[in-house]
Automatic annotation (TrEMBL):
Keyword NAD listed: no
Domain Beta-ketoacyl-[acyl-carrier-protein] synthase III N-terminal: 110-187
Highest taxon listed in the record's lineage: Bacteria
Domain named Beta-ketoacyl-[acyl-carrier-protein] synthase III C-terminal: residues: 232-320
Keywords from the UniProt entry: Acyltransferase, Cytoplasm, Fatty acid biosynthesis, Fatty acid metabolism, Lipid biosynthesis, Lipid metabolism, Multifunctional enzyme, Transferase
Main location: cytoplasm
Subcellular location: Cytoplasm
Lineage: Bacteria, Pseudomonadati, Campylobacterota, Epsilonproteobacteria, Campylobacterales
EC number of the protein: 2.3.1.180
Active-site residues (renumbered): C116, H248, N278
Protein name: Beta-ketoacyl-[acyl-carrier-protein] synthase III
Broad EC category: transferase
Entry text on domains: The last Arg residue of the ACP-binding site is essential for the weak association between ACP/AcpP and FabH.
Subunit structure: Homodimer.
Length: 327
């Protein structure tokens, strides 16, 4: 019988080499390591080199993801990238740049803007494409060079974010399906977390990210918790059946608050925010890859993804990982 269910067949990431730790930030802005740890749980973040673009980070993650799916680049027939820090303001898309870097022509390639929820939005799009028969192998990438849009004199923001990329391939496989995905948005709160723009000579130029942290924290915890409760109930799955809960890595306090509300045990939760900071759309795939590379994520593992980001956007995904892990 022909397969008709989409599956996440691989995962990979690329982390820039340069590390910016809390003690480095103490020399740049009025802050200190203890405050950052207490408020965010972040110890360090990785920063791309000046000559590394978002598309470069995404390409390196993509190459590994394609290899782990036992495919060649030519087997990919669509590339979708989630990013809030694209190479160019509007065009060409980062996906088109990555397609070119991979030597691919005449394939579907485009970006989406869903902030930190981007990878879950990508999963939903890729699932629809593959299960409808429109595409066979969809490469999805969350890639961010947030250092390019961060004001490093703003101590409330510069401590939070890092750079990186994560990628995966979605193809048909009934044995390890993407079980369910939920995405949503509410533009009413868009001004609480945004990339501010100015008008110069009638051209909109991006400046830097701005956030009203306390308001975002409260809404994020309640929204993330409710979304998980709903997707588990809809699919008749108990929290203790989840092998790995992989939330967006924005802030350790948010992660712990959601974990407590949902009664997830520490061994069920994947936490990487201390190493990478908030990498927005790259956060979840980077965290999935960490679990893959340390052996916690295996083929068939039941994983639950949960994210919240600017827009506001949010989403959750329930799936069995379809990639092989020989580690």
């Amino acid at each position: 019988m022909k397969s008709n269910k989409a599956s996440l067949k691989s995962i990979a990431s690329y982390i820039p080499e340069k590390i910016l730790n809390n003690f480095d930030l103490e020399k740049m802005v009025q802050t200190d390591n203890e405050w950052i740890l207490r408020r965010t749980g972040i110890e360090q973040r990785h920063i791309a080199n000046d000559d590394e673009n978002t598309s470069d980070l995404g390409t390196k993650a993509a190459i590994k993801a394609i290899q782990r799916a036992n495919l060649n680049p030519q087997d990919i027939d669509a590339i979708i990238v989630a990013t809030l820090s694209p190479d160019y303001f509007t065009m060409p898309s980062t996906a088109c740049k990555i397609a070119h870097n991979l030597g691919l022509k005449n394939i579907t390639a485009f970006d989406i803007s869903a902030a930190c929820s981007g990878f879950i939005y990508l999963l939903e799009l890729a699932k629809s494409m593959v299960e409808s028969g429109i595409k066979k192998n969809v490469l999805i990438i969350g890639a961010e060079k947030i250092s390019s849009i961060i004001d490093y004199t703003d101590r409330s923001m510069c401590v939070l974010f890092g750079d990186g990329a994560g990628a995966g391939v979605v193809s048909l496989d009934d044995n390890f399906p993407i079980i369910d995905i939920h995405t949503a948005s509410d533009g009413e709160f868009g001004d609480l977390l945004m990339t501010q723009r100015s008008q110069q000579s009638n051209i909109c130029m991006p400046l830097s990210m701005q956030m009203k942290g306390n308001e975002v924290f409260k809404i994020a915890v309640n929204t993330l918790s409710n979304d998980v409760i709903n997707i588990l109930a809809k699919n008749n799955i108990n929290a203790n059946e989840i092998d790995l809960f992989i939330p967006h890595q924005a802030n350790l306090r948010i992660i712990k608050a959601v974990q407590e509300k949902l009664n997830f045990k520490d061994q069920q939760c994947v936490v990487t925010v201390q190493k990478y900071g908030n990498t927005s759309a790259a956060s979840i795939p980077m965290a999935i890859n960490d679990a893959y590379e340390d052996g916690r994520l295996k083929q068939g593992s039941l994983i639950l993804l949960d994210a919240f980001g600017g827009g506001f956007t949010w989403g959750s995904a329930l799936l069995r990982f379809g990639g092989k892990n020989d580690k």
